[in-house]
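Sanity check

After download, print the first record. It should look like this:
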Amino acid sequence: MRSVLAFMFGSGQYKSAAANLGLLIGRLGFGLMLAFLHGFGKLPPAEGFVGGVASLGFPAPALFAWAAALAEGIGSLLVAVGLLTRPAALTVAITMAVAAFMMHAPDPLAKKELALVYLCFALVFLLTGSGRFSLDALIHRGRN
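Expected structure tokens:
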């Protein structure tokens, strides 16, 4: 149980103020841009988006469209504020992997580029956590 909580609320142990500031800037840029430029525009999922998900062969395409839209909208906001950063980054990473490697599979790299960049940033926050300047760090400090 302790390892699950550490994963969910672990913020990483970075002593350098510059590293923690870098994580904060990265989280804010990544999270706010993904949420406001892509995620919230998909809520609620339009028929075209649900149809695109269905064309990928997902069962219950409306459910998966909602999951993708929530990952991009709410999940990226959670990353931005540093709350449940790792689980939220995981949902974004899965969504961006589907976007890059399934939805845009036949497209040229330039069309996949944005999903791949968001995927890379999501993986960074999944692996590093949120850093000292986050809600996860406040929760983690409160638990110790």
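If your output differs, re-run the checksum step. Summary of this record's structure: The chain has seven helices and no strands.
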